[in-house]
Structures are given as C-alpha cells and as structure tokens.
Amino acid sequence: MHWTSLSFVRAPVAASVSLWLSVLMLSIYLTCSKKFERSWQGFSLESFQYIPTDLKIKAFAYMFSYGLSAAVSLPDQAKNAMGVSLKLSLLVAFILVLAIGFGHKTWIGFFRDSSNIIMQFTSMIPLLLISIFIDSVLGVISGVARGCGW
C-alpha cells in the first residue's frame, strides 16, 4: 500500500484485490493439482444446500457480538458501553459454548444420523468453541476500534 500509488484512500481496493487473487490461486491449485482428482469432482448444487443450515449454528453469536460492536462504536460513554457490551457478548458466547459443548451430539443429530459424521463433528468442537469465544470478543473490540477512529 505504501509502495504503490494506491495510498490510504484505495486501501480497501488493495485488500480486495489481494483476497481475490488468493481465491483465484486456490481455485487454480484445486483444479490443476493431481492431489485432489479422486476427492474433489467439482462443484455441485448439493454441496451448497447445507450452507444455510451450517451457518445457523454460529449466526446468533456473530450477530449479537457485532450488534454490540455497533453500539460500542458510539463516542458517548464509550468506556461504560464497552464494558457492558463485552460482558453481554461473553455471556452469550459462554451460553452458546455450553450448549454446543455439552449438547453437540444432540445438535448434530438434528441434521445427520451418521455416526461417522457425528464423530467428525465432535473432533471439531474444541476449535468451534474457541472460535466462538474469540469472535465474541473480536466483535466488541472492533467496535471500540471503529469508534476511536482506528
């Protein structure tokens, strides 16, 4: 950004271009590499039909923490708002972590009954729980940064 003529005004354009270049390079790697010829047969509509169902598991935690981040970004009484928002966000994340951590077999049972899929989902639970906690804090902190002009 500093070495090109894009400057700070065009920083989002530079970030978008770099992300799309990553998508393009990954797509080329997937289609041209011999590693994936037996495991990936291309896109199908069936692979996309489960995306909304999977997103519903974490959508509440994201929306709640990012909604609080918008409230924190207001300048009036920002310190108090940040404390309340962070506590509420952590409380919701803690409840969600408990619900997923202790009831993950029940949750996945609503969508699949295969024991293999349940075992694979169970192996991802620690990463999912850590991600929920980090995302809840990140939403509030990003609101604080936005409100401070960072």
Automatic annotation (TrEMBL):
The keyword Membrane applies. One of its GO terms (cellular component) is membrane. GO terms for molecular function: antiporter activity; xenobiotic transmembrane transporter activity. It holds the Pfam family MatE. Keywords: Membrane, Transmembrane, Transmembrane helix. The chain crosses the membrane at residues 12-32, 81-103, 124-145. The keyword DNA-binding does not apply. PANTHER family: MULTIDRUG RESISTANCE PROTEIN. Belongs to the multi antimicrobial extrusion (MATE) (TC 2.A.66.1) family. This is Protein detoxification 19. It comes from Quercus suber.
